[in-house]
Automatic annotation (TrEMBL):
It comes from Glycomyces artemisiae. GO terms for molecular function: DNA-binding transcription factor activity; transcription cis-regulatory region binding. Gene3D superfamilies: Tetracycline Repressor, domain 2. Keywords: DNA-binding, Transcription, Transcription regulation. PANTHER family: HTH-TYPE TRANSCRIPTIONAL REGULATOR BETI, HTH-TYPE TRANSCRIPTIONAL REGULATOR RUTR. InterPro entries: Homeodomain-like_sf (IPR009057), HTH-type_TetR-like_transc_reg (IPR050109), HTH_TetR (IPR001647), Tet_transcr_reg_TetR-rel_C_sf (IPR036271), TetR_SbtR-like_C (IPR049445). This is TetR family transcriptional regulator. It comes from the Bacteria.
Amino acid sequence: MEGAAVGEARTVRADARRNIEKLLCAAAEVFGERGLHAPLDAIAQRAGVSTGTIYHRFGSREGLIDAVVPQYAEERLDAAAGRALACADPWEGFAQYVERVCELQVQNLALNDVISRNHPGTARLAEVCHRSQEQARRIAERAQADGSLRADFAAEDLLFVFWSTAMLVRFTAEDAPDAWRRSLAFTLDGLRSEGARPLPTAALTPEQVERVMQSRGGA
């Protein structure tokens, strides 16, 4: 009897591990397709488990997001920043970085929400966003030191670019999936130092960015 009990316990543990693996795979797929506000019921259905299993295993939507998204996002944003900083031409590095981040927004709606900061607040995603912001600052400062990026640009200004792309991705995906590229081309031309006119207002401070994120429900 004791051996049977041990065997049953091992079976339960194995089933639990399989359920967790199925949930993680399903969450990555559904979040990628529908964004971080996708219904948890849709994730549970794809995984073939009950919605209650999500709460039992991860505690909340935020717990599930933290288990699935931060590492995926960090790897891709780090790769984009690494390529930009390795580029011999600082302006090309900056432009390639911005374009690559926008491409990530298009390819995966979970990343779209992370990059545009439209997601439930989680500690790990907040760390990823902060790390990405500091990388973007280094990339921008490099292009400014080169004299190719306008001197009054701030890394916080990139949020406007990514918010704009986030909206374009969601509303033009079916009819004009490349519309964001045209918009971004206009933006990048406007960021060149040559012929730049003075801006009518200052950039947001990091503190202002944080308040804006909190007011719109982001991290």
